[in-house]
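A further point concerns the way the authors explain their paired sequence and structure data. An entry of this sort, consisting of the sequence and the corresponding backbone structure tokens, reads as follows:
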Amino acid sequence: MKEPRQSNKGKNRVPLRALARVASVAAGVQFGWALQLSLLTPYVQELGISHVWASYIWLCGPVSGMLVQPLVGHLSDQCESQWGRRRPFIVTGALLIVVAVIIIAFSADLGYVFGDTFLSRPRAITIFVLGFWILDLANNTMQGPCRALLADFTGKDHRRTRRANTFYSLFMGVGNVLGYATGSYNGWHKILPFTQTVACGVSCANLKSAFLLDTIVLIITTALCATATQEIPWYFHSSGKTSSTSSPIRPLLSQKPISAFMGASQCAANEDSERAYTLPTTIGEDIETEDEKDEPVQEAFFWEIFSSLRDLPKSMWNILLVTALTWISWFPFVLFDTDWMGREVYGGEPSIVDARQSSLYNKGVRAGSFGLMLNSVVLGFTSLMIEPLCRKIGQRSVWTIANVIMFACFAGIVIISVAAKHSVRTAGVPSSSILVTALLIFAILGAPLAVTYSVPYGLASSVTNMSGGGQGKNVVLVGEEK
């Protein structure tokens, strides 16, 4: 008598605690992003770059997003490292971020050493821009594999995919809270007095201290991510064909090491090496299903990514269009939120000559950082509600409501700008009602931002899985900077 076929339900799953540890790296990355977004636009103007030119420095984010993330995604898909496909890129990206952060933090000191003066800092600006662009490249190198690793561990389970994205969004909120709270504090130069030097005053020392703390948080979260669970190295089938041919899916997790992870060439040449994989057999760990066992994966070259857009289903095109338009709307707020608070609400200017204007501007920047911290708190709580909301009313409805809220808040920012100019002109400082309203809008925007960080990825994953494609992450990431 034939035994009844056992259900795979409950198997093929990475434990939630492992998913949470993988997603925790988002806190480290977002800690740095929070500092970068809240402090670097004001700081670069203090170095001497005009407000108009400051926005051009941020072009590296979208450019590297379009070029680096698809390339890194392609390379990580084919990576045959003994450490797995994704983790080498995650660790490399983290190391590059640490280097870039140190360059940025000490740019004023290095410029002074190379001959800058207090009124002219061309060398510091050059060093800063170099570090800034390295930081953007490193962030994009790291974020794609982080998302892909979560997608690898959740597979075709749409519910767990949404949970993984919720974890990621939650930790982004945690990183934002820590980063913006650090940026809003003005006393780091007293706690770390060595950061204040001849070329680096109080505001510069606070920025330097904040970025040094960022390196510590990033190293800890990267270690948690890299040691969360064991990736099995991805070895191509020994067919003698190029990577563009189809190859069978390999399990992504291992309960035990694979004979010290034999070299790629040896594993490819020896069929017995495939038997060295030890698959987990307990419920709650990932194993290979019969449906996925012989499923082919088509490896695309970098130049094939754009041509493959022609074959995307209409629903994916809709997701890409809405994602692009959504991020076009977010970018002005994301890049100039604290600068807007310092200039438009407080009526200050980042000047080294006019002390009063500079003081007002710095107060506005710190108030903006505090508002962004409130934004991150709301983002964190909203991320916990996304999963049940998506089950109740659907992912598309949640995304639509979020974009309507975002539109209303941005319209409110325009109204506040007009009202604040009148208040500063008559009283010299913004009224308390204007400040409270501005901070309230900053906080409310955390809800649609949480949706933007998670729901598009779940929709893209669902569409690509239903159409028999891959995870579809890097295409969506093209439109995203952070």
The two ends are 57 Å apart (CA to CA). Residues 343 and 349 are 6 Å apart (CA to CA). The first helix runs from residue 16 to 23.
